[in-house]
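Fold sample X.
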Amino acid sequence: MAKAIRLSERGGPEVLKWEQVEVADPQAHEVLLHQTAVGVNFADVYLRTGLYPQPLPSGIGSEAAGVVAAVGRKVRGIKPGDHMVYSLPSPGAYAEQRVLAADKLLKIPAGVSDEQAAAVLLKGLTCWFLLRQTYKVRRGDVLLLQAAAGGVGLIMSQWARALGAKVIGVVSTEEKARLARRNGCNQVLLGYHDLPARVRKLNRGQGVDVVYDGVGKDTLFASLDSLRPRGLMVSFGNASGAAPAFSPLELAKRGSLYFTRTGAADYLGQPEARRAGARELFSLIRRKLVRVHIGQRYPLAEAAQAQRDLEARRTIGSTVLIP
């Protein structure tokens, strides 16, 4: 037996319950992981509220790291004591222990801690497909990054800078602006007021090549208006709520823009893709080209408070729960 956060109804953070759960022995191709750090993401909030549908009752959370406690008889290449990390679409990471298919786990390399791996994997893989697949960022590109001091933003700005891009970040407070500047942003703008004009002022009168927007409702048109002709708007999150519907003519009016709304499963659904992204991510961390900023730690039992703070934008960088 172990404890986990369980979800039996939709609602606010108060619906997250700390409960006793049964943990089975690992079957032939499975691993029992004693979890040491759990990552917190906005996707967890969307599952709790019902924006991302999921049958109930359910676990919650998509990524965690820990130490292998036992392996099934047909598992190869993983042994008790190994430090592993995972990021999965099936919820249940907010738990002390979890049984998982061995092929879903990634080995944490030397030089990367369990907390770093849990804090960075989903966000880092998101950055990988956004920067390397959705739009292949090249040296000299100029990109606009909304919520540049968030968990994804801090990783993405450093990664983009390492690729030779110029990064203009947008944040909501002076404290976050200082953090964004220390983590890859060449220039930082405070707030959304008159954003397109301020972006062009920083970019020799031109719009940017690509906008990465994980905020959603509050920033959609400001992001579109900040692009150069035929630039790309990448929407990948809904921190302020789902972005509103709009006519395709809005893209033509702004210079024949491109628009995409990404889904991680379409980029990370295959194990080969996850492994490729993780290799590049962990290499950047080990080479200190990407630093993992863990701004908050909470006991796992206090997951509700962690989500309250995340929704209220009181968090900076990544958040981890400690079992």
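Fold sample Y, listed below.
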Amino acid sequence: MDRITRKELKTDSFALELGHAVTFFEEYQKEIVRYGGIAAVVAVLAAGYVVYNRHQHVDRQVALAQAIAVQEAPIGGASNFSQTFPSQDAKDAAAIKAFTDLKNKYAGSEEGEIAQYYLAAIEADKGNMATAEKGFQEVAQKGNEQYASLAKLSLAQIYFDDNRTQQGEAMLRDLIAHPTVFVSKDEATLALARYLIHKNPAEARKLLDPLRVSPVDAVRNVAMSLIGEMQQVTPQQ
């Protein structure tokens, strides 16, 4: 089984996370507007309570957006970003502080669990896999369904990287059986097929064949690429 590099783990998880963060903010922006409308027609005390909670929710979103901005800030000289960092270590330190503050201040909230997800991904990129695993496990167990699925996808990568293939396979098969908006059945299937190419090419091919005609270009292209890769490998004895 090919080992998964930390660069691959970071690329996969952060690419997913960045895209889903946009959806997250768009969905909750609509929710805030809807609650604002409700508050206008209820009793004064009830309206005050809704407004208070809405304010707290917006505060959490702002804190999360600021922490993500730190994580996505470039390293080096001048740029269009509001901040830059002289080194990766400096950037990591600032991001860890921002996400840790968010997690501690809003413990138990959805934004707090998203912060934990980011903290785990940063630790994985730094090579601290044991710490990263604990962080992803927390999100998998306590986070909402969507972010829990992302954490499980990252955990599967860590398990395969550490040669805990049975745990990795079980995690991906569970994601296939229980897809979410953030980790679709096709995404989980592609991930499992990727790791079965060397171990069980027959099953990998069985998983990939239906995806060759997927209406989603990205899924179809990855499936074809993995089939091409599979044709070049020799099954393990």
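Sample Y note: The chain is about 75% helix and 0% strand.
Also: The chain has a mean pLDDT of 76.
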